[in-house]
From TrEMBL:
Natural source organism: Oryza brachyantha
Keyword presence, Transferase: yes
Function: S-adenosyl-L-methionine-dependent methyltransferase.
Classification of source organism: Eukaryota, Viridiplantae, Streptophyta, Embryophyta, Tracheophyta
InterPro entries to which the protein is assigned, alphabetical: METTL2/6/8-like, SAM-dependent_MTases_sf
Family: Belongs to the methyltransferase superfamily. METL family.
SUPFAM superfamilies listed in its UniProt record: S-adenosyl-L-methionine-dependent methyltransferases
Name of protein: tRNA N(3)-methylcytidine methyltransferase
One Gene Ontology biological process: methylation
Gene name per UniProt: LOC102719133
UniProt keyword annotation of Methyltransferase present: yes
Top EC class, one word: transferase
Gene Ontology molecular function, alphabetical: RNA methyltransferase activity; S-adenosylmethionine-dependent methyltransferase activity
Keywords associated with the record: Methyltransferase, Transferase
Length: 320
């Protein structure tokens, strides 16, 4: 599950200009004042009240499966080259484990594997077809050695818990589980491994926004459970008043700051306070949290585009 809009860069921030992706072209507070003073956007600001006698269908992972089936071509793939600048921790020369939650077509996986030969990436998604396409893209990307380093697996993080083999041994013990109790190991784990040893980094890149707000705490709790003490969650997602939010029509609102597209896919738009509270409630320590505000111009129609993303790093406390 992955928000497709998050990977679409502007002409200003094309390949080779990754250093411009995470910047402050404008102040979020200035954009906020502009939006809130515009009567045309007033419906985005009001409390959400469903129309009497009508109801919106609940967001479904099936919609994202259908979305990725429609966009399986290589043209939709755009590698997130800015990722390693924004999260330099991923440039590690060690042998860390990374979990990409909602890997989509692998646009986050590829730069990690390319830059850090010692890192192993475990990537989950709710769509089998997406995982197959991701594996094809990653394995056929020039300059990326994936042997024993890339392991996609099927999992709907909105409804399912992570498999036992993903936990570190100490976390597994706290859950009263034992490595020898695993009935079936994935093909990439041998009998003498039994456990990947836990996760050093979890990347959540335009993933959490595809899930309703009331489900997010449970998802973060699951993520924290497989994270090693001292491990990091690296987060990037849609921010409040991003241009894609302002394009939604009143009938597409399904909650406060929650919207549903015509294809059934869902999107939530974050404030810093909401992100801060979500991650704090999950037991993580805030290391970095800010708006990323990028201004660009659409080449086709010459319209100014103001993108707002939330960028954050959160750490699992180390054992005392």
């Amino acid at each position: 599950m992955e928000g497709g809009g998050g990977q679409r860069g502007s002409s200003k921030h094309a390949a080779g200009e990754a250093e411009e992706y995470h910047c402050h072209d404008f102040q979020w507070e200035d954009l906020r004042a502009e939006v809130e003073a515009n009567p045309a956007f007033s419906y985005h600001l009001s409390p959400f009240a469903p129309t009497a006698g009508t109801s919106q269908p609940p967001p479904s992972s099936d919609a994202w499966r259908s979305f990725h089936r429609r966009h399986t071509s290589g043209k939709f793939f755009k590698e997130r080259r800015y990722l390693l600048k924004e999260f330099p921790e991923l440039n590690s020369k060690g042998s860390e484990n990374v979990l990409e939650v909602g890997c989509g077509n692998g646009s986050t996986v590829v730069p990690i594997l390319r830059s850090s030969p010692g890192i192993t990436v475990y990537a989950c998604d709710c769509s089998k077809e997406t995982l197959e396409k991701t594996n094809e893209i990653v394995c056929n990307t020039r300059g990326v050695d994936v042997k024993d380093r890339f392991h996609p697996f099927l999992l709907d993080v909105s409804t399912e818990t992570f498999p036992d083999w993903l936990f570190c041994k100490s976390c597994r013990s706290s859950r009263l589980n034992n490595c020898n109790m695993i009935e079936k190991l994935p093909a990439f784990l041998t009998d003498d491994q039994r456990c990947v040893g836990g996760i050093d980094f979890i990347t959540m890149i335009f993933t959490l926004s595809a899930i309703p707000l009331d489900i997010m705490p449970a998802i973060l709790e699951r993520c924290v459970s497989v994270l090693k003490p001292g491990g990091l969650v690296l987060f990037r997602d849609y921010g409040l008043y991003d241009m894609t939010m302002l394009r939604f029509l009143p009938h597409q609102r399904v909650g406060f700051r929650e919207y549903m597209r015509s294809d059934g896919t869902f999107s939530y738009y974050f404030t810093l306070d909401v992100v801060r509270e979500l991650f704090r409630a999950s037991g993580l320590l805030e290391l970095d949290l800010e708006y990323c505000c990028v201004s660009s111009v659409n080449r086709k129609n010459s319209k100014k585009m103001q993108r707002v993303w939330v960028h954050g790093k959160f750490q699992k406390p180390t054992a005392v």
